[in-house]
Specification:
Blueprint: H1 2-17, E1 25-31, H2 37-50, E2 54-59, H3 70-77, H4 106-122, E3 125-130, H5 137-149, E4 155-161, H6 169-176, E5 182-186, H7 191-202, H8 211-218, H9 222-238, H10 254-265, H11 269-281, H12 287-294, H13 298-310, E6 314-315, E7 318-319, H14 322-331, H15 334-351, H16 355-364, H17 373-388, H18 392-405, H19 409-423, H20 428-444, H21 449-462, H22 465-481, H23 486-501, H24 535-549, H25 553-565, H26 573-585, H27 589-606, H28 609-626, H29 629-642, H30 645-648, H31 653-666, H32 669-676, H33 688-703, H34 707-724, H35 734-744, H36 748-762, H37 768-779, H38 783-800, H39 803-819, H40 823-840, H41 843-848, H42 857-864, H43 868-872, H44 876-886, H45 891-898, H46 902-916
Parallel strand pairs: 1-4, 1-5, 2-3, 3-4
Antiparallel strand pairs: 6-7
Helix pairs in contact: 1-2, 4-5, 5-6, 7-8, 8-9, 9-10, 10-14, 11-12, 11-13, 11-14, 12-15, 15-16, 16-17, 17-18, 18-19, 19-20, 19-21, 20-21, 20-22, 21-22, 23-24, 24-25, 24-26, 25-26, 26-27, 26-28, 27-28, 28-29, 28-31, 29-31, 31-32, 31-33, 33-34, 33-35, 34-35, 35-36, 35-37, 36-37, 37-38, 37-39, ...
């Protein structure tokens, strides 16, 4: 603390200038660089001068340490004029030769002794030497000779000494370890000391709240503290008169950085080189490494690191402030940086350090030089680690630099393939040219099989099936030579993926695997000795199973297990995507939505635009299957924003199909037509994603009155699905589309046959497809049979969550009741259909139901002359039950929606009937419109 420094000054004054003494007195002020040694020395010298003591000052310098008697000459120059000789001191010039005999300096030693005796004969004398550790050896010998032989009580000596020493270290230790020497050690300020200083400088006690932060940045170093404070005052003079709260917090500026440089430079060239080396490496945790880097012996490196720690630059081997490291890096000469970075990289690589740390130095190495073989491998290793850490830009920089250093063709091709794999999830468009250039090498076997697989996947997406097949043949040959390896598993997964996604290409048919999905499902506890199946195979086999056979509970559980155990990464993205698709096609909407939203958030945070687009289109597909048309448009449009159509390649049918289908159901036929007018790759029609586009186009044609074109597309869709082995209700309900088309053409029998086929495929489970099939089948039946089928359809759709289809079924049910003359029931069904259509965004359906502006219960009662007070007597619970009953819900349905018992619903309705003076449910006012949101 500052108070302690005042106590040290008083202590030195008492020792040097007060009280009885025996022989000369010697005081040593030590401490780290910029700890205040010089200031304390000057204070003592000024105090001595004020008391009539003659002072002989001298300052030792590292740059003058090699010049004999440099310090001694300064002392002579401070003597009175009558003691100074006009010529050189006796024997001084002869002793300039550093190789001369030590005995030759005896006359000079004796002369200096006589001068001390003469000077102390009439007045006290104080010799004050700053930075005595840099004093030359001859001067130290002379000083020690004079002090030991001068018995006068009038002689006092005070020196300041830093931590570093030079060639004269032994002589200095002999001098400063005399008996009765007083040692004063100046330590950095504590947090309390910093708080005291800040209070004095800032003029407020509130500054103490920042003391810990100031101490953290400076370690209590006075010079660094002054730099921070000067930076603060400089900011305030440039800023407003009334600084905002918090301006007392330390912020490193130019003055602080210059203070840090001063701390380093005062230690001398070797010390400065150590500081530069630490700045380059980032820490000083490995002294041997640092010693090799800067070519300074370990002893001196440890000494310098200790001093940098003591002075407040380092703490725990690391810089207290990044600003100090930056200024030290900038302080290095440009011609030094390149070689130092290269040497640091080599040393770290040889030590087996983190590859990213090695790459950091290599990427900073810009100086030309011979190509060293290890550099390319080090950069490749760093790229792999950077990709795993999701540091794509760093990975690309490493790979590009490795490519420049590579002299081997195969190695260069591997680097290009790794670049494609690293950046494809983020920006496929930027990698298309590089991918196309790799097609030939991949097909000719120049690329290793693991690097060929991402190229194959990319070529498939671009629709270059022949080149993909040629490259896949190379992978197949390599996998045959290593059965059971990761490569073999990856190839089997690709074959399954081809079977469910690209099954219509002659070039790819040799690689299809339609038998793999018949293998044993690993979904339960493992038996002894049994190995778990690869998540890749599990995910793609589950997807193929659902697409070819429909919903399979084993496949669904397997897909869920994959999502629970596999973390999304570059290597697992296709696996995760396949597992999630399985849940979507299996209509596990809640689970699929939860996983999809989680993955959308994760990929959005990572900036992986391509992956984000893939998950957004799956989210759109979920929304379409449950009938949330606005959500379908929102997610599909986002998918095309994140990844433009050109980036989707032959899979663009998926986002376009979702958008076209949703716009058609909403009645936005112009928007759907504009999407259909966009050019698409011809190869798109030969994969599963093209089926969704073809189905959506058929839906649009049916909605716009082009029945024959619609029928052609629905049939084409069915033929492809049958030929590809994907004709299941989980994929697409093309039969229902064709049946609806035949209904508009008057083909009741054909429509009925198609609807019955769809029902048979759907089975007895309550599924969205079964409900939709019942609705279509009802349209082919006589009016007296239609209502039962539609009621069954509504129940199935409500249980399965097909809200748009349920709205259509309710609309048909309302029309059937109307034709039978049951207008009250028709009104109730219409109201329910309207609510659902509005909730789904089916605007065209809403318009067809001819909805009128909603009226409140109060306005209805007023219009009919009823007693409005009766409605005001209903409680909130009664109002909710009455509103749902007026909308056509059964007591059981109301109980489920409001989480109450059926008995409670009946009691509420009884009270409602009594209060508004009616006797049965159908007498509830049609406009009873309380704010009860429909819950899907």
């Amino acid at each position: 603390m500052l108070v302690e420094r005042d106590q040290e000054i008083a202590r030195l004054n008492r020792l040097l200038f007060e009280g009885a003494r025996e022989g000369s007195r010697l005081a040593v002020i030590s401490g780290a660089v910029t700890s205040g040694k010089t200031a304390l020395l000057h204070t003592v010298a000024d105090t001595a001068g004020g008391r009539g003591v003659r002072v002989l000052p001298a300052v030792a310098s590292a740059s003058e340490q090699k010049f004999p008697y440099a310090v001694l000459e300064q002392l002579y120059q401070g003597m009175p004029g009558h003691l100074q000789h006009s010529g050189p001191r006796p024997g001084l010039e002869a002793l300039r030769d550093p190789h001369g005999p030590v005995e030759a300096e005896l006359p000079l030693l004796q002369d200096f002794h006589r001068m001390l005796d003469e000077l102390t004969g009439d007045a006290p004398l104080l010799i004050a030497i700053d930075d005595v550790q840099f004093a030359d050896l001859p001067s130290l010998r002379c000083l020690a000779y004079g002090i030991r032989r001068c018995r006068s009580e009038a002689l006092s000596v005070v020196v300041s000494r830093g931590s570093l020493t030079g060639p004269a270290a032994t002589a200095l230790d002999e001098l400063l370890h005399e008996p009765k020497v007083c040692h004063v050690r100046l330590a950095p300020l504590t947090v309390a000391g910093v708080s005291t200083l800040l209070t004095q400088e800032l003029g407020t006690e509130e500054a103490g709240r920042h003391a810990a932060a100031y101490h953290e940045m400076t370690g209590g170093n006075l010079l660094l503290l002054r730099g921070l404070l000067d930076d603060r005052f400089s900011r305030l003079t440039r800023g407003p008169l009334d600084p905002a709260p918090g301006t007392d917090a330390p912020v490193a500026g130019e003055l602080f950085r210059q203070a840090a440089l001063s701390c380093v430079y005062r230690g001398g060239p070797a010390h400065r080189r150590v500081a530069h080396g630490v700045a380059l490496l980032g820490d000083a945790t490995s002294v041997p490494l640092l010693s090799q880097l800067i070519e300074v012996e370990e002893r001196l490196v440890r000494q310098s690191v200790g001093l940098l720690t003591e002075v407040g630059i380092l703490h725990g081997g690391r810089f207290r402030s990044d600003a100090v490291r930056t200024v030290l890096q900038d302080d290095l000469e440009l011609h030094e940086l390149g070689p130092l970075h290269l040497r640091a990289a080599r040393l770290l690589y040889e030590e087996g350090a983190d590859p990213i740390d090695v790459a950091r130095h290599l990427l900073s190495h810009e100086a030309p030089g011979p190509v060293e073989e290890w550099i390319s491998q080090a950069l490749c290793d760093a790229a792999v680690h950077a990709i795993a850490a999701d540091r794509r830009e760093l990975a690309m920089n490493c790979l590009q630099m490795a490519d420049r250093y590579s002299t081997d063709e195969r190695e260069a091709l591997q680097l290009q393939a790794t670049m494609v794999q690293a950046m494809w999830p983020f920006n496929p468009l930027s990698q298309m040219r590089r991918l196309q250039a790799l097609a030939g090498p991949a097909g000719s076997g120049l690329l290793p099989a693991p690097q060929t697989i991402p190229v194959v996947i990319g070529l498939l997406g671009l629709g270059r099936m022949g080149e993909a097949a040629t490259a896949l043949e190379q992978v197949s040959r390599a996998a045959d030579e290593h059965p059971g390896t990761d490569l073999d598993i990856a190839l089997r997964a690709i074959r399954l993926a081809l079977s469910s996604t690209y099954p219509d290409h002659p070039e790819l048919r040799p690689f299809l695997d339609l038998e793999e999905c018949d293998g044993p499902w690993d979904i339960g506890p493992l038996s002894p000795g049994q190995s778990p199946e690869s998540p890749q195979l599990t995910a793609f086999r589950a997807l193929r199973t659902v697409l070819s056979r429909g919903v399979d509970e084993r496949a669904v559980r397997a897909a869920e297990r994959v999502l629970e155990t596999v973390r999304l990464s570059d290597r697992t993205m296709l696996t995760v995507h396949a597992a999630l698709q399985t849940l979507v096609y299996a209509d596990r909407h809640a689970t699929a939505t939860s996983w999809c939203d989680r993955l959308i958030e994760e990929t959005s945070e990572r900036g992986a635009k391509a992956l984000l687009a893939y998950f957004c289109v799956l989210r759109a597909q979920i929304a379409l299957r449950v009938g949330r048309l606005r959500d379908t448009v929102r997610y599909a449009e986002r998918a095309l924003e994140e990844l433009p159509a050109r980036g989707w390649g032959v899979t663009v049918g998926m986002p376009l199909g979702m958008l076209i289908n949703a716009h058609t159901a909403m009645g936005n036929h112009d928007a759907a037509a504009e999407l259909l007018a966009r050019p698409v790759p011809e190869e798109m029609y030969r994969n599963r994603f093209g089926l969704h586009y073809l189905y959506a186009r058929a839906r649009h044609q049916l909605a716009t009155g082009r029945q024959h074109a619609a029928l052609t597309d629905f049939r084409a869709c069915g033929e492809k699905m049958a030929a590809w082995g994907l004709d299941s209700p989980a994929t697409l309900t093309w039969r229902l589309g064709a049946a609806e088309t035949w209904l508009t053409l008057g083909g009741q029998e054909r429509a009925a046959r198609l609807a019955e086929e769809q029902l048979e495929l759907a089975g007895e489970s309550s599924s969205r497809t079964r409900g939709a099939a019942l609705r279509v089948l009802a349209a082919t039946r006589p009016l007296n049979e239609r209502i039962a089928l539609l009621q069954q359809a509504v129940g199935v759709l409500q249980a399965s969550g097909g809200w748009y289809e349920m709205a259509r079924a309710l609309a048909d049910l309302a029309e059937a009741h109307k034709q039978l003359g049951d207008l009250d029931t028709s009104r109730l069904m219409t109201r329910r259909a309207l609510r659902l259509a509005d909730s789904c965004g089916a605007e065209e359906l809403s318009r067809s139901l001819q909805r009128t502006p909603a009226r409140s219960a109060l306005s209805e009662a007023t219009r009919t002359g009823e007693d409005t007070a009766a409605f005001s007597e209903l409680s909130d619970a009664e109002s909710r039950v009455a509103a749902l009953a007026a909308s056509g819900y059964t007591n059981r349905e109301i109980a489920a929606k409001l989480y109450i018992t059926i008995s409670t619903v009946e009691q509420h309705l009884t009270r409602v009937y009594r209060k508004i003076n009616i006797s049965q449910r159908r007498e509830l006012p049609a406009s009873l419109d309380f704010d009860v949101a429909y819950t899907a």
